[in-house]
Amino acid sequence: MPSHAPHPAPTTPRAESPSPSPGHPLTDPGSHPDAHPQDPDPLQREKAHLAASRSALRAMREDAEALNIADVTANWVNAEVLQGEIDARIKSLADLAHTPLFFGRLDYLHSPGLDLAEGAPGENFYIGRRHVHDADGDPMVIDWRAPVSQPFYRASKKDPMDLRLRRRFGYTAGELTAYEDEHLTDPAEAERTSRLLQSEIERPRVGPMRDIVATIQPEQDEIVRAGIGGSVCVQGAPGTGKTAVGLHRVAYLLYAHRERLARAGTLVIGPNRSFLHYIEQVLPALGELEVKQATVDDLVGHVEVRGTDEAAAATVKGDARMAQVLRRAVRSHVTMPQEPCVVVRGSRRWRVPAYELEEIVRELRDRDIRYGAAREALPQRIAHAVLVRMEQAGEAPDDRVQDAVARNAAVKATVKAVWPPVDPAKLVLRLLGDAEFLAEQAEGILTPEEQKTIVWARPARGVKSAKWSAADAVLIDEAMDLVARTHSLGHVVLDEAQDLSPMQYRAVGRRCTTGSATVLGDIAQGTTPWATGTWEEALTHLGKPGSVVEELTQGFRVPREVIAYASRLLPAIAPDLTEATSIRESAGDFAIRAVAPEDLTAATLAACDDALAKEGSIGLIAAEARIPELRAALAATGVTCLAPGEETSAEARLTLVPATLAKGLEYDYVVLDEPAAIVDGEPDERTGLRRLYVCLTRPVSGLTVVHAAALPEALAGP
Prior knowledge:
Blueprint: E1 3-4, H1 42-65, H2 76-92, E2 102-108, E3 124-128, E4 132-133, E5 139-143, H3 151-154, E6 163-172, E7 175-182, H4 195-202, H5 218-224, E8 232-236, H6 242-256, H7 258-264, E9 266-270, H8 273-279, H9 282-285, E10 292-295, H10 296-299, H11 311-317, H12 321-331, E11 341-345, E12 348-352, H13 354-366, H14 371-392, H15 399-406, H16 409-418, H17 424-433, H18 435-442, H19 448-454, H20 470-483, E13 491-494, H21 502-509, E14 516-521, H22 535-542, E15 548-552, E16 554-555, H23 560-566, H24 570-573, E17 581-582, E18 589-594, H25 600-612, E19 618-622, H26 627-636, E20 654-658, E21 667-673, H27 675-680, H28 685-696, E22 699-707, H29 713-716
Parallel strand pairs: 3-5, 8-14, 8-15, 9-10, 9-13, 13-14, 16-17, 18-22, 19-20, 19-21, 21-22
Antiparallel strand pairs: 1-7, 2-3, 2-6, 4-5, 6-7, 11-12
């Protein structure tokens, strides 16, 4: 795999211009049959293509800006809609100065799509983040999601996929500085690891999460390009890129099914706001601007959450059996009619006896349609019974008469009496505040002890004054869906899914009943007492049983020594999972420092100073109880301290991270303060060890563990 760079090779932090090393010799660009003898400097030719592509992209943007819609819209509404689409188009055509416009080139042996027997000459395609064409409409850059781009990620010596050459490009601050070739059909060239790919994977992380479009691996690409017809669950060990895979899958589906998803909508669900802020720039970098992001709490935010639950109460409230309790509570409002319904029209009186009303009510109840839909159908059913009597009396009523009867005061009164409206929040308020009502609805479903766990000791006076918890809000959302169907989206990505309760899974599943889902997570990183035990169980609660479960075990982020150290915890926290490996060539910095209790804070700050002397972002991760002391100590020494989710910069590279917010984040160097305090901060040992596993696997380049208390037994050995 020859590598090429200008001489002398520039020295940059990203190390994208390779230097000679065993097994990766630098070669003369003109020495290979695939080179262009008439062009002694292919790098300059590639730079020229980059410049021309950027010019073409600017022209595409200028064309969009110059569009005049004054004479093509019938009214101001159409004009507003069309202008909004044009503005989105203009925004998507922005040229991000420090983001490579293309990162690879494919040289095909034959033109794609033509019969190989025709002997059609091959074509070259530049692969990038978006499509770019010249003034004649000919492509200068092909979108990475297009079928013709797929071999960039999947071709190999064993299966070249009709490629003669695959070229990767190295960039420094948006400028093309190097390239590296693989001649896939040359038997004399051995298959080697790409050093440009390796350096891209290992380069320091500063700022928000970046896309992995240039480094997608074959097993990741299979998940990204999976069809929209089914849901996919990705079990991914730390550093395997599962979050990036999920985001790129959204981008791919929007490319392949844009009209369908534009109508139905897409949503990315993350564990917290810090996480969403961290990932929010990935999709815009790929040209996708319309994907919404939310947390589960956002989805069910029908009431203000001001309270918290003990772990035991939250576990019961999150149990799937609560759906049965709520369904029974909603249906308990239906009562069988005791009186007939008498409708007066003009001089005639039409009587529907109680037994017939009861038959109508029972039929609607047994059809198992939503409470609100049944309540809307009931007056029409009663009106129909009246119309039957009218026809039997020789009248000829039409639909307008039936609608008028359905609105009759007597019919309305009957409906109100037998099928009254239900307010979901008031229903949950009554369930949690009235022990007798809860006992009646939960009989045979929850044990008396479980009922006692969730009932409020001091009932709230009303919905607004109640101190609702996050779990209560999920119950209200379930009750709302029992009354009226929740709107379904076309595709939902659910990240860090292992932490959701069964009731939270149901809340997410309601948002994609007619669409598909991409579920991302790691059983070993489940840090709630109700964390899911198996993906099969989780997918059932989500409403997607039987979905494909893919496992990613090849890591790209966490250094080998670090992931091996953290994996010592797997037998205690997730014994059925495969231990992750790392393809990173660098071993990474790894140190464990034992100190006296009185020296703990000073030693942690010293480790931070050591990390700040290196390039990249630093995450200081500690138990919640330690955060105030560490923040004060950092302020006293003049070190700028960021909060999770805030973007790092050259001036501020250290983020103070509570262990509870570390999930999904990554830093070049991590200083981990007092592991025992992190474990002790959780309600049980398994959850504490899982939380520690999460924290240990946040670094990209190095980890320093500082402790005064004894390490957990699995980590105490050599």
